[in-house]
Design a protein that fits this description.
CATH class of the largest domain in chain A: Alpha Beta
Number of helices of chain A: 10
Oligomer: homodimer
Strand content of chain A: 15-25%
Largest interface: A-B, 46 and 44 residues
Radius of gyration of chain A: 20 Å
Distance between the termini of chain A: 20 Å
Shape of chain A: globular
Helix content of chain A: 40-55%
Chain lengths: 318, 318
């Protein structure tokens, strides 16, 4: 039996699965931080115990526990390092605490790596050895499945696709560097840009009830309706995303690039199709036909699958 | 016992080593293509048999044969696909031919991957799990050691660092794309540029005996003497190399980046020092101190070590 835990900014999703990843029980609760990380973690492990009891097993009998948690984290020590979305968590030894509470081996991954593992095991990357997942919500993250396993890099910091330069000496990024993908396609940066430059007569403003309320979702909705400004912004967004995929393709030769969040929401016509076209123009003619650029499949299932994907790592041959 | 074969444009280097990679015999001969690939390969396997006999063993007793060969190749089928440096070799089933002749399992890698394996086992990357090698001769290639093994990618085409864009919409590259690293730092492209733009009064021209004879070696020599034009060109070259390393660092988080050929020849003051500085300015402050950017160590030993590094792949746990 495996236990998966997905700790999000607002919700914690738990799942119990067999060793093949088939989910047999699940639950969900608000993250509702107490501002005391030890208490937060104790609540999560209590919920886990309850779920495990529900399927008639006990904590010590789990083969592996996988946890998906917002980064940054130190994967070697299993410590969570002050994620922006969990502000009171600073250097929380999550792995040690959960191992003690559940008496089972625990693996930790940041949410982008966990999403990549889940899409690889259960979603859009099933059956391939080389798959990259890009996720663009507030920030931009990636998980790299290379040669049939997660590549975490030195100190677990690989896959910082959000900070690959897509414009040399370009826009300042919140990270302090310039021209990062995240400065062009991250939800936070894009929201600021849209609020600053969206014309008052654009459909985007109407949908958002004014400039100050604009989010990328309004932009996508307006683009779907054909609003010229929104369509132009979407093209720009696609271009920068395509540049990052060109980099990834040249360096890593993936079979599948899985796009989540905004790209998934925007869909084929507004995002995936145009991105495929721009990538094909910037890689070699023999590369484009073998590279699949697809939307993430798991959607609402992702939180339950993410922790299970992480847990399964320990079971797979290295 | 292992056999390593390095097939270069002008020379074939052979080495026999024990299973730990310790070389016990070596030989070298001109490639001297007959324009009949089957005859070329027969000559190489004859030389291999002679070397093996020298150390008192026989072909069938080899645990593994590793071959380094100019790309492109199809690693799955062990076929060499018309390398520019071996023009008469077109779809040569090298692995099958050598396996038949030497009655031993054969592995094939392109020269950049083989160099990476050799520097990782025996040179500048010893003891680390994540190492990237960049080699800049006529073209620009790379070998990626990720998580303690070579990452070859889908169809073995990963590590095309030479065609990572370092200037969006930049100079045309011989590959047909624009702004590729190779268009700025590859020996072929750089030679063309230098012949076109070097001022007649530059020290570079004097060393080369005129513009038409200029090669990157003359540029490096003139820069070493302080020639202003040459120093400026070297700075430009370093900047583009640094951009590629920034990309690699964000995506792959290597511990060591090993630079061969021109960068190695240019050395600390003209290349490695300035490249480290430019990379440090374009990555996060916590990344730079843990990233080592160093020159390749093997030098003249590389051809003998390259094939052995490839052969050892088969012995290492996957």
């Amino acid at each position: 039996m495996l236990l998966g835990i997905d700790i999000g900014a607002t919700k914690v999703a738990l799942a119990v699965a067999d060793d093949a990843g088939q989910i047999v029980a699940r639950s969900r609760r608000p993250t509702g931080s107490t501002r005391r990380p030890a208490d937060d973690v104790a609540r999560i492990t209590e919920a886990a115990r309850a779920l495990i009891a529900e399927v008639g097993t006990r904590a010590g009998a789990l083969h592996a526990v996988g946890i998906s948690v917002p980064g940054p984290l130190d994967a070697r020590t299993g410590t969570v390092l002050r994620p922006p979305n969990l502000p009171s968590w600073d250097a929380v030894p999550l792995r040690a605490w959960v191992e003690e509470a559940l008496e089972a081996p625990v693996r930790l991954e940041n949410d982008a790596n966990a999403a990549a593992l889940a899409e690889w095991r259960f979603g859009a990357g099933r059956g391939v050895d080389d798959m990259l997942l890009l996720t663009m919500s507030t920030g931009v993250g990636a998980g790299l499945i290379l040669g049939g396993r997660l590549h975490a890099g030195h100190f677990g910091t690989a896959g910082e696709v959000g900070h690959v330069p897509v414009e040399w000496g370009g826009e300042p990024c919140l990270c302090g560097l310039h021209g990062c993908l995240e400065a062009y396609t991250g939800g936070a940066a894009w929201t600021l840009r849209l609020r600053a430059i969206t014309p008052a007569d654009s459909r985007v403003c109407a949908l958002a009830g004014g400039q100050d309320g604009i989010t990328p979702e309004h932009l996508v909705a307006a683009a779907r309706e054909g609003d010229a400004f929104a369509v132009g912004e979407m093209e720009r967004w696609n271009e920068y995303l395509a540049r990052a995929i060109v980099n990834l393709t040249m360096l890593l030769a993936p079979q599948v690039v899985v796009l989540g969040t905004i790209a998934r929401a925007a869909g084929e016509r507004l995002c995936l199709g145009p991105v495929r076209k721009r990538v094909a123009q910037q890689v070699w003619s023999h590369q484009a036909p073998t590279l699949r650029i697809v939307a993430a499949e798991l959607g609402d299932e992702l939180p339950y699958r993410a922790g299970i994907g992480v847990a399964m790592q320990g079971l797979a041959p290295a």
